[in-house]
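May I ask for whichever protein you like with its C-alpha cells?
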Amino acid sequence: MRERGARSRPVVAVVLVAAAAVQVVACRSREQPAPRPAAAGPSGAIAFSFGGRIHLMRPDGSGRVRVTGGDGHGDPAWSPDGATLAYVRTARSLRSSIHVVDLAGGRSRPLFPAERAQTRDPAWSPDGTRIAFVRDDRTAEEHQLVVAELDGGGERVLRREPGEPEARALVGEPAWSPDGTRIAYTVTTLDRRHHFRPSLHVVDAEGGEPRLLASDAADPAWSPDGGRIAFSSVRDRNGERCWDQCTYHGELYVMDANGGDPARLTRNRGDDRSPSWSSDGRRIVFASDRNRPQPGGLEIYSIRADGSCLTWLTNGSPESRDPAWRGASPTASDRGRCGPTRGRPLVEVATRGMRRSAYWLGERHGNLLLDAAEVGRDGRSLPTYFLSYDDCARYDPRACPSGMQLQQVSVCSRSGQSTLPVVDDPDYGPLHAFASRGAVFVDIGPGDRSVIVGAAHVRMFGNTHTRRARRRLVQAALALRRVGRPAAPLPAPALPRALLKRVRGTERAHGRRRSIGATARALGIARVVVRHRLELARALRSLPRVLAVDCARR
C-alpha cells in the first residue's frame, strides 16, 4: 500500500478494505474442537481474541482459558445467559462468517450460512432469541444491517448501503439496548481528505427511520441500565494511521443514551476502541495500542466508568483485541486494582519452519517482545528469515526502546536481500564497516546495520539516529543465538571467497600505490568501490578469524 500523500483509490476499494480489516487473520489451520473450559469459563469472564483464537479471562486478567481452536477467530459476543459465544471466523480468503460455540460442550457451528454472502459483527438480543449482524451480500451488492432468529427465520433488514460498484458507506458494530427495543450501530464513510469518518446511529429493533446519535464516533456499547453508551470517538484527532487512506485514533467516551452530555475517559496518542461494560456497570473493558501505537499492538484494558483506575489486563504477542464482558456474571468487576498486570508477557508467535541455522533474540529481548516470524526462500535453496520485535512488554511505553526487525539471508544471496554486493557497487554511497567482539558489522545507511554470523548475514533495522540507539543495535546483534539453542559465542564471520579475494587484492594494491585514484585506475574500478573494499578490509583485519565460503553458482 502507498503511504499518506499518494492518490487514493476509489471509495469502493476503501470500503472493501475496511470490511476485510474488521478481523485480523492468523495463519489458517484446520478447525479443531475447542478445549472444554471448566464450568463454562471463569466467573465474570471477559472474552477476547488472542492470536486468532477466542480466549476467556477473569476481570483481573488471570485464569486465561482458550475457547476455540483453529485460527482467524475474533469479535466474540456473549449470549445473555453467558453460556454461549458468537464469534466471527475469517478465512485466509478474508471471507467471514458467524459461528457460535457452546461453552459447556465446546463445539462450534456456523450461523446464517450463505454461499454468496459474508457475515460479521454479531450482537445478541437481550432475550437471547435473535442476533443482529452485518451481511456483505455479494448477490445484492449491499452491506446490510440484519436482525434474525438463530435459525435464520424472522429476518429483517434494518439498513442497506450499496456495495460494489457504488459503495459509499460501511455499516457495522450493532449493539442492542438492554430493553431490546433499539439497536445502535456505526456507519463509516470517507471524507474529502481521505480519512475514514465514523458516526453512531440508532434504529428501532423492529425497523424504521434511523437517527444520528453522535458524529465522529464508533463502537457503541450500552450500559447495563440502558442510560449511557460507551463509544470510541475520533473527534479529538489525537493521532492517526495512514495507508492509502487514514484512520484517526479513537478516545474512549461515555454519553447519555440520547446522545447528550459526552464525557471523555481516556487521553493518549494510541487508539482506544471496542468498549464493553461489566454487568454491574462500574467498569468498561476496551482494546488499545497505547503502549505501542502501531498495527498489531492492541492489548486489553479496563477502566472505571468515571475514567479512573486504568488497568492493563493482557500483555503479550500477538495482539489481544475485541473484548466482551460476560453480561450474566454476578461477580463484582471492580476489585480496586489499577495499573499494569503482574503477569509475565505471553508470547505465542510460531517459529515452526525456522531451521537451526536461524538466529534470533528469543521471545523477549529486554522490554521488546517478538511479534512476527516469517520464513521465506532466496531462490530455490537458501532460506530467509524475518523477525520483528515491535511489541512493548511494559505498561509505560517510555520504558521500551523503539522496535527492531531482523532479516537473515545467506552471505551468498544474489537476490538483493544481502547488502554485501554494495561493496562492489559504484553507484552506492558511503559504507561503514567495523568489528566488535569477534563480529563484523556493515552499515549501508540510516536504520540498516548488519552483522555477519558464520555464513549468515543478519540485517538489523531500527533507530540509528543517536549514538545510544546505534550502540543498542550492536548489543542486540551480539546477543543473537540460534533458534532452539542456548546463548553461545557467535561463530567467526564467513564471507564469499570471491569477495574476500577482491577485498584483499584491493588492499594490497592500495598498499603499493598509496592512493585511492591510482588504485582505482590500476584495477579498472571506481574510486568508491576502492573505498568500500578498504573499509571492509580494515574491519576484517582486526578480527582473530575470518572464514571463506564457496558460493554455488545459481
Remarks:
- Residues 359-549 form one domain.
